[in-house]
Amino acid sequence: MDGTIDHVVLHVRNVYKSAQWYIENMEYENKKESIDHSSNGELTSIFLGPQNTNKEVVNLRLKNRNKSDELSVKRSRKHIAVRVPEGELNDYYHQLIQNGVTNYRDPESCDNRFAFVKDPDGHEIQIVESDQSPVWSIDHIMMPVTDPDRSLGFWIRNFDYYLKNRVELDSFSAYFVKPRGSTSEAASIELIYEPDLQLQEENNLWGHVSIRVDDLLKDWENLMNRGAPDLRKPKDSELSSALTATPTGHEIELIANW
Length: 258
Known about the structure:
Blueprint: E1 5-12, H1 15-26, E2 28-38, E3 41-50, E4 59-64, E5 79-84, H2 89-98, E6 102-105, E7 114-118, E8 124-129, E9 138-145, H3 148-159, E10 161-168, E11 173-179, E12 188-193, E13 206-213, H4 216-225, E14 241-245, E15 251-256
């Protein structure tokens, strides 16, 4: 299995307005647009990402919700993290604030190690320092977990990930996992465990993480044999994709490698 993260989906109220926000503030470019057909009708998606990147860099997929769906901005504690150069956190953060971006946690409140802002739909974006180019590329995708051992085992066993780094503090533990053999530009999954955390119902502004696999049918069969949830079989998507979920219920789409 390849296991590289291809893109992460965020649901938005107005896909063109949200895309313009990322283009203006994070210098993303519009990679492509697509129309998704579902029982709710046609929904527009826009794929965004830093300019001049390779296939290891994760794209952001903004997806319109159906007009009949009321978007909830409940705090699910999930977020994406983006990279800025080492030593330049404050400069990039203050530029965003000058542009009118909503502040969530400034660098000083985070011991000058990172900062948080919010996009127009309330998605939390962590800004971290990293010299792994390009600027504003996605560094990791955070997912809260209730059983870190089980969640680590899920990623390691099912997707051939490895534990890249871990942080153990009194209030929480963080585990960063990523595909074996991936480059420094590839994004990680951050599994956060807080002993006293009561996970809220997943807010419907979050979509899923999409992961590339080498052989969709074979890799899907392996997942099923290992007890992964069956949310959408490959045959239900004309053999183009499939859908499973982590032990905590975060959805994972499998797509054929390209």
